[in-house]
Structure formats: structure tokens, C-alpha cells
Amino acid sequence: MTSTTLAPSAQAAPAARAASPVRTTFGGLVRAEWIGLTSLRGTIASLIIGMALVVLPAAGIAVMYGVQYRQTGDETMLQWIPSAAGLGFGGVFFAIAVAVLIGTGIYAKEHATGALRTQLAASPRRVSTLTAKALVVAIAVFCATVVAVLLATAAAAVVLPLFDLPVGIDDLAAEVILPAVGAGVFATSAAVFSLGVAAILRSETWTTTLTIVFLFVFPMVLLNLPWEWAASLSEILLGMTGQSLAATPLEVTGELGIDLALTIAWALAAFAGGAIAMRLRDA
Amino acid sequence: MITAENLTKRFGARTAVDDASFTVKPGKVTGFLGPNGAGKSTTMRMIMGLDRPTSGRTTVNGRTFAEHPDPLHQAGALLDAKAVHPGRRAVDHLRMLAATNGIGRRRVDEVIELTGLGSVAGRRVGGFSLGMHQRLGIAATMLGDPQVLMFDEPVNGLDPEGVHWVRGFAKARAAEGRTVFLSSHLMSEMSQTADHIIVLGRGRVLADAPIREFLRAAEKPTTRVRVSDATVLASLLSADGVEITQTGPDALEVTGVPAARIARVAALENLDLHELAPQAASLEEAYLALTDDATEYRSDAAAVA
């Protein structure tokens, strides 16, 4: 440890303290969370890897179809090859998985390292802090997911014509724009859901495991049970409602509105649970 | 100023803090002493709003900490130097904390300079030594230029130079008129840093006094004596409230009689005094006497003998 000479106070004298501009605001908390999120290489790497896992398979599969079509000249392929949008949205699962990791990490990792306690000792408004975390993770995940699926669709749309295959997109809004927004909403809800669960469980491993099981495994299990109620229940779970928002083409119907409401409600419910737990428990 | 009023914290059946009341005043370094498990850290966490009291309340500058619109300007606390995300750079950790209170980058740079972290500010915290962690934690406490500073075991694990630095830092901040509250289980440390001490044992306040007063209250005048006839002197000094231990053929330890009186008695009996050495009670001894019954985790005396 090197020694440092302490300047005899460059600090404000107690008498001059009233003029301090220091204030805790929600905007400040959001800014702090943004710095927190973007200052971790692991988080940035997760976002980039997640985007790559959406984009690269779309481009890769388009190339595979193209090569196969060129080698075989099989015209029947034109009937079953997915459109560029279909290929672009094939990797949404990876975006959701990354969203869960980021939503979990922004709370559980900070809690496990003690950084959250340090933060709460600087700004003790817990629900505001959790809300700021949710907002920042929502913005980051939504933007990354929308960009990823648009890039994936664009990549497929560039590759397919190189092999004389059709792009297959007739209605840009219904087949690309709306599903991209829907995928963004799904990923955002998954991230906020996992953030809320992390605030309840305070464990990165448990939160990630249980959220992934809840999103992807539980609905499938229910669907395969021989009871009607099980299938009905699976339809209202976040994993199913979210997937229906990212379907292409996406038709604007009342059912879509219900799926949208349920997707957001799941995130809000988990967030509320996390906020209550954070408010009531010792940090 | 920090106040605790009838503060109690229970974790299940265990009472960590038991009806503790005290005031930590500005302009001095107040040491918060107690054996491991005495409830010091829990008390500090309650002051900062991290733990909720089972009953009672704490205030920082007249309000509970969470009620302040400018928390970092009111109090800065270093409760756990390692409580930082290891993957974050030191400067980003400070920027993040500063942003929560609307504090700008310039102040971040100032506290980095103040704590001598300039050369490592761009490094990730995971590679920091304990001393650097402590400095980073102290830098964070100074972000809002607060009136109250609170450090939990700030010298634990530091090398002598680091200890000296923390000591100087605490004293300098108190000299500026700030309230400085620091915990330790090391009496020797407190004797060199604190002006006032609050001793906690099993969650209860055992003492709350200026250090000198604390020492005086605990002090029993003990004098080491070497004399030509120890047995005769011992018999002459024997009285109620006087403890005499013969430590050698010509040596005694006398407690409860001032050294001047021992000298007078020896002179009247024509005994030759070879040594007459009053022993000042150390803070360590006074503290051990005070907390003897309040120590939660005690080493086995036989094992260390």
C-alpha cells in the first residue's frame, strides 16, 4: 500500500454544506444501472454472443439450403424452405436464454458479490433501485433482441437470393417488423421476470435454472399431459405467450392482445414479488 | 451525528443487538469496540438502512438514513471493503455509486486522487489487494463529501503503512468537524485512533465514554516493587481492598495502594527499595475486563497455553 498525503481538506466545510447539489433521483439510479450494466465485460459479451447466436445460424442455414438447392436443383424445395423471416426468427430461443442470464445477473451477481449492499448504502431506496435495474435491463435486452432478429432476417434475405432462392417476404410489417417487436417484448419480459425471481431467490444458479425450466420445459411437459386443463394452462405460461408474439407472420388479433398482456403480466408479477422481497428483507 | 435509540435486532432466537442506545458526535473519532459477534456490524448496517431493526431506531443527522434525499452527502459507509463486483473497474464502481446521487465524474476523479488510487483506477477490482479494496471503499464514502463517515473494521488485514494511512484519514476527517465512527475489535488500534469509545458486548452497550475516562474507570493502580524484605513490606501493606502478589523473593505486585504510600511505608521501616514502578492499565486490559462475560467466541485457554 502506498502512502498518500491527505490534503487538509479540499472538502467543503460543514458550514457550506447546504448548497450541495447531491440528490438521489430515479434518473440518477437509471444512469447508475446503465454504468453498472455496460461496465461488465461479461454482460457485453453475453449480449454480443446472444446476438451472434441469432444471426449466424440464420445466415448459416440459408447457406445450407442454398447449397442443397444448387446441387440438387430440386424445385420442390421452394415449397418448404422457410422465408428469410422464418430463418431470422429461428434463433429467438438464444435471445431469450441470454435475456434470462442478463436479467438474473443484474441482481443475483450484484447481490452475491456484495456490490448491491454497497449500492444500497449509497442510495437506500430499494424499490426505486430495483425498478431502475428492470428498466435498464429491459432497454438493453429489447434493443439487442430486435436488432438481432432484424439482422438475422436481413442476413437470410441477402444469402437466399445468392442461390436463386426467394426471400419469401410479402408483408414486411406482418412478417418482420411486428414479430421483431414481439420478440423484443418476449425477451424483455423474460429478462424482467428473471430479475424479479432473482430478487426473491438471491441465487444466480437457482434463478437461471428455474426460469429456463419455467419458460421452456414446463409448458412442453404440460402440453404432453393427457388432460385438457394442462394444455390450457400451458397456453397462458410466459414461454408460450411470448413465443406467439415472435411468430411470423404475425396477425393482429384479439388473441395476440391477450398473449401480449399475459407476457407483460408475467414479468410484472415476478417483478412485484421481487420488489416486495427486497423491501421486506435485510439487504 | 448518529443516534441509536433502544436499538434491537433479532435473527430468529438470537439477539444480535439488545436495546442499544448511543450518540456518535461530530468532530471526533468514535471507536465502536466489541469482540467478534458483539453486534457491531449489524448495528452499522441498521444505521445505513441495510438491516431493519426489530425495534428501536437509528438516525443520521436527525433522520433515518433512507429518508435523506441526498444520502451520500449525509453519510458514507465502508461496511465491507470486498463488497464490489470483481469484474468492474474501480473507476466504474465509483462512477456507478456517484451516479445514484447525481454526483459527477469530476468528484470521482477527486476521491481517486484523495485515496491514492490514481494508478489502479482503470483496473478491474477482482485483482485488487485488500489494501486497495479498503482505499476504494474509503474513496466511495467520500463521494458525497458527507458529514458522517462510518467504517467497519477498516484496518483489518492491512499492512502497517495502510493502517497508518487509515488512521490519519479518520483523524483528519474528524478534525474537519465530521462525525467519524469506526469499528474494531483491536483495542490497540482504537487507543491510537479514537477519542471516544462505545463498547458493545453481546449486543449491549457496555461502555460509552471518552477513552481517558474509560481507562480511568477501569484502572486499578498496580505497582511493581522490588524491596530488601518483601515479606515484611507485604504484611505492612495488607489491608482490605489491597491485593499483593509475591512474584519473586524480593518482588511484589501491589494493587490498590498508591506508589507514594508504598514508598513511605518502606522508608518508615527502613526497607531498601530497589524498584517502585506504577503500572498503567492498558486499554486492552480494561477492554478485556469489561467484555470478559460478553465474548461470544472464546478460544480455549488450554489450547493456547
Structural overview:
Chain A contains 12 helices and no strands. With 283 residues, chain A is mostly helical. Chain A has one domain. Chain A is globular and about 70 Å long. The N terminus of chain A is likely disordered. Chain B folds into 2 domains: 216 residues, Rossmann fold (3-Layer(aba) Sandwich), CATH 3.40.50.300; 60 residues, Alpha-Beta Plaits. Chain B contains 12 helices and 13 strands. In chain B, the strands form 3 sheets. A 6-stranded mixed β-sheet of chain B has the order 5-6-7-3-8-9, sandwiched between helices. A 4-stranded antiparallel β-sheet of chain B has the order 11-12-10-13, covered by helices on one side. A 3-stranded antiparallel β-sheet of chain B has the order 2-1-4, covered by helices on one side. In chain B, helix 6 links the parallel strand 6 and strand 7. The relative contact order of chain B is 0.15. The C terminus of chain B is likely disordered. The interface between A and B is large, with 48 and 63 residues.
Summarize the structure.
Chain A has 12 helices and no strands. Chain A is mainly α and 283 residues long.
Mean pLDDT of chain B: 90
Percentage of β-strand residues of chain A? under 5%
- What sequence of helices (H) and strands (E) makes up the elements of chain B? EEEHEHEHHHEHEHEEHEHEEHEHH
Helical segment count of chain A: 12
The total tally of domains of chain A equals 1
- CATH topology name of the largest domain in chain B, in short, is Rossmann fold
Shape, principal axes of CA atoms of chain B: elongated
Largest sheet features of chain A: none
User: What is the CATH class name of the largest domain in chain B?
Assistant: Alpha Beta
| Spans where pLDDT lies below 50 across 5 or more residues of chain A | 1-16
For the termini of chain B, the CA-CA separation is: 44 Å
Q: Give the domain tally of chain B.
A: 2
